[in-house]
Amino acid sequence: MGGNAEEAPMAYKDINEVMNAQSELVDILGTFQPRIVRMDK
């Protein structure tokens, strides 16, 4: 599927790095691993 610049993979931060940086503020209760990702229409 197509998309635009906001949907480019390099537009997002690595979630593991973000969570590690905020480790004093959050408790990880579980993780979600999507099987299918549909971008745009």
Query: How much helicity do the residues have?
Result: 10-25%
Please compute the radius of gyration using only Cα atoms. 14 Å
The proportion of residues in beta strands is under 5%
Tell me the span between the first and last alpha carbons.
Answer: 7 Å
Average pLDDT for all residues: 80
Shape assignment: flat
Low-confidence stretches: none
Total count of helical runs of at least 4 residues? 1
Structural class: mainly alpha
The tally of strands reads 0
Helix and strand succession? Answer: H
Report on the biggest sheet.
none
Could you outline the blueprint of secondary structure elements for this entry?
Blueprint: H1 15-21
Could you characterize the architecture of this molecule?
The chain has one helix and no strands. With 41 residues, it is mostly helical. The mean pLDDT is 80.
Short description:
Helix content is 17%, strand content 0%. With 41 residues, it is mostly helical.
Label this structure with key terms:
mainly alpha; single chain; 41 residues
